[in-house]
Specification:
5 helices; GNAT_dom; transferase
């Protein structure tokens, strides 16, 4: 398995994979296509031969306002102050292969290349354990946590890691 740049032709596979992996947290195909169109440098798929076993989407953003689930963002903000790891999804066949660790390193490098010192993400469905093992920690921000809980449910955590 090898990470490669996400192409427009991958959108159907990315959407299908999201449905399989994320369940209630899946997003419309248009969200993935928009992120790729706005910031292709942060969009990758994990190729397993001719199949797609995972995808990664990340882009510059503002740390105090994570994009809403299923929402279009329309543009990368000119005043971005962090790198946002929008989504990492791996099929079962890709888990335990090191693909998640490689994806994390890719995002940290992209953040540094963009001149952004921090990476943020939303962890749902118990993914905080995975992200904590990769150096991310929960952000203590009660008002933001309340907004996120209203949108995602009680198991959402906003997490941060320096890009260094």
């Amino acid at each position: 398995m090898q990470w490669r740049a996400m192409e427009p032709a991958d959108m159907d596979a990315v959407s299908t994979l999201s449905d399989a992996v994320h369940g209630q947290y899946t997003e419309p195909r248009a969200v993935y296509a928009e992120r790729r169109a706005l910031y292709p440098a942060g969009c990758f798929v994990l190729a397993d031969g001719a199949d797609i076993a995972g995808y990664l989407i990340a882009h510059p953003w503002r740390h105090e306002a994570p994009p809403p689930l299923g929402g279009m963002i329309e543009a990368i903000p000119a005043d971005a102050d962090c790198f946002y790891l929008h989504d990492l999804a791996l099929l079962r066949v890709a888990r335990g292969t090191g693909a998640g660790g490689t994806a994390t390193r890719m995002v940290l490098e992209l953040a540094k290349q963009a001149g952004l010192g921090d990476v943020f993400l939303l962890a749902v469905g118990g993914a905080d354990v995975f992200w904590a093992s990769r150096g991310f920690a929960a952000v203590a921000d009660a008002p933001l946590a309340a907004r996120l809980t209203a949108a995602y449910g009680p198991d959402v955590l906003y997490m941060h890691r320096p890009a260094r």
